[in-house]
Structures are given as C-alpha cells and as structure tokens.
Amino acid sequence: MTLTFADNALLPLLLGDHDRHLVRLEQGLGVRLSCRGNRVAITGDAGRVDAAQTALTTLYRRLEHGEPIAASDVETAIRMSETDDPRLPLSDVPAIRTRRGAVGPRSAGQAAYMDALARCEMVFGVGPAGTGKTYLAVAQAVAMLQTGRVERIVLSRPAVEAGERLGFLPGDLKEKVDPYLRPLYDALHDMMPGEQVVRRMGTGEIEVAPLAFMRGRTLAHAFVILDEAQNTTPVQMKMFLTRMGEGTRMVVTGDLTQIDLPSGTRSGLREALDTLDRVAGIAVCWFDKRDVVRHPLVARIVDAYDQRDAAQKDALRSRAAVSEGTGS
C-alpha cells in the first residue's frame, strides 16, 4: 500500500528526526516503510499493512490539527492501530479536558476506561503498573472539579502496605503519610498549576488522605479515588465503598499481582470484584500488558513476570498430577 500526504511541510515531522518515527513504526508493527517525495510505501502482511496505515493516518491528522508528535505519540499510534482488541470503542475515542489541555487515551484499554469514567458512578480499574489507572482517574476528577460537576476531590491510599502502621515512622502525621501519597500529588500537579493545587488543598476542595481517615464519613458531591486498593482488607474496602454519598463518583484502582498484605489475608479488592460482579451501575475495567504506557521495556517486564507465574502454576499442576498418579 502507498499513502500520499498532501502537505510536504508536515511530512518531515511525521517521519521524525533521522526517520526515527518511521523506524519505530516498522519495529512496532512488523512492516517495511519507505518514503519517496510525499508518499510512504508500506510492505508486509495484510493485517500489518492496515495497522500501519491507521497509525500513519492518525499521526498525520495530529499534525494537521497543529499538535506535535513525540515518541510517546508514536507508541500510542502503534497500540491504537491494533484492531483485534475487543475493548476498542467503536465510537470516537473520548478525551478528558482540563485547563492544562486534553488528556486522551493511549491504548484501547485506556479508551474503554475513560468511557467508563465518564458514564458510571463507580469504576474499578484493575491491572499492572504503568497502565494509567490512577493518572486518568485523577484527570477525570480534575476535569469534573473545574467544570463544577463535583465540589471536591478526595484521593486516598492505604498509608502503608500492611495495615497502615504509621507509629514507628519519624515526623508528624503529614510527614509519615506523604511518601505513600506522593503518586497522587504528582498526578494532581500534572493536571493543574502548583499554586492552584496548594490553594484548593487549603480550602478543602482537594483532600489527599490515608484510607484510615475515611472511616465514619459520608462523602457527597465529591470525586473519590482509592489507589493501591489491592492492599486493603475486606473490612477496609467495604468501609470505603459505603462512604459514597449523593452526587459522588468513586474510582478504585489496583493491581492484584502486587498484593503486600500479610500471608493469609484476603485482598479487599479481590473480594469486592467477586462480590460486586454484575451489580448495576458499577463498571470494571481490566488492563493488561497491551495497556502499559510507560517505557516500552515496562511492558516486556510485565510480560516476563506473567510468563514466569504461568510456568510456576503449570509446574505445580504437573507435580500435583504426578502425586495423584503415584498415590503419594
């Protein structure tokens, strides 16, 4: 297939310095790309060629709209061009708009998640690190706060992995808790100017607090996010979910492969997913390695751990079968 691009001035931006964007598209999509004049020829399997066409067209459209192309945009185009992902919405991909700009999905899983954030009052986002679960939830919270759809944002995490035992840490309560809440602060500062974050925290419009601080409260007209929820106990999770008041949105994020609770303690996130399955008004979005949007190496690391875990499970099943066969 050969694509023709009308604006020769945009073509160098599409190709990247020393054709680096073109090279990455070749590597990521398994095709051969060659440029001559204002045309790009695509060679490869039919499905791969179609994916490359989609990626190139998407990137070129960004340039036509005056938006620059970075390496992360090329990675996004590679992921989003994969048409065999059933989570990819058929409608236009949604975007979250804050005063710092639009935040768009960078994978099919993110697109489905953002759609759920816009529609549902309670959303669970479950999957590995680097998939944007917390970042997109904070973006949606900021967008709703800035447009007046909620009156405040409440961000929470289990303060420490195993039971929120803070007493042995040095400093006052804020100094004890802040290191565990830092990822939430970082996401906030990406969405709005620092002085606005400080001001809104001072007025109570934004609250960042450990999970223990939620007990006994009713949270109304708020956007509430519980991060690292795999490290809650069932009692803590139930306590959190029942804080929901009128006009409130809740998002619960976590990674079931990184549970740090004491041995024998069931994860509150896992129990909630089992208990609330098919409850009307609750959306559950599952992420996997295809949705990792950090450095490409992160996706390969996640995949390597998944393969190791699968191999260990197969080995355990094989040993169990052998034991049954020998009667031992």
Please, could you describe this protein's structure?
With 328 residues, the chain is of the alpha/beta class. Helices cover 45% and strands 16% of the residues. The protein has 11 helices and 11 strands. A 6-stranded parallel sheet has the order 8-7-9-10-6-11. Strand 4 and strand 5 (101-103) form a beta hairpin. Helix 2 packs parallel to helix 4 (71-80), helix 3 (46-64) packs across helix 4 (71-80) and helix 6 (133-146) crosses helix 7. The relative contact order is 0.12.
List keywords for this structure.
3-stranded antiparallel β-sheet; 6-stranded parallel β-sheet; 11 helices; flat; alpha/beta
Please give the count of helices. Answer: 11
As a whole number of angstroms, the C-alpha radius of gyration is: 23 Å
Largest beta sheet: strand ordering: 8-7-9-10-6-11
Shape: flat
Fraction in helix: 40-55%
DSSP strand count: 11
User: β content, as a range?
Assistant: 15-25%
**Sheet with the most strands, sense and barrel status:** 6 strands, parallel
The low-confidence runs, each spanning 5 or more residues with pLDDT under 50, are none
Order of helices and strands: EHHEEHHEEHEHEHHEEHEHEH
Looking at how many chains there are and whether they match, the oligomeric state comes to single chain
- Structural class designation: alpha/beta
Overall pLDDT: 84
| N- and C-termini, Cα separation | 62 Å
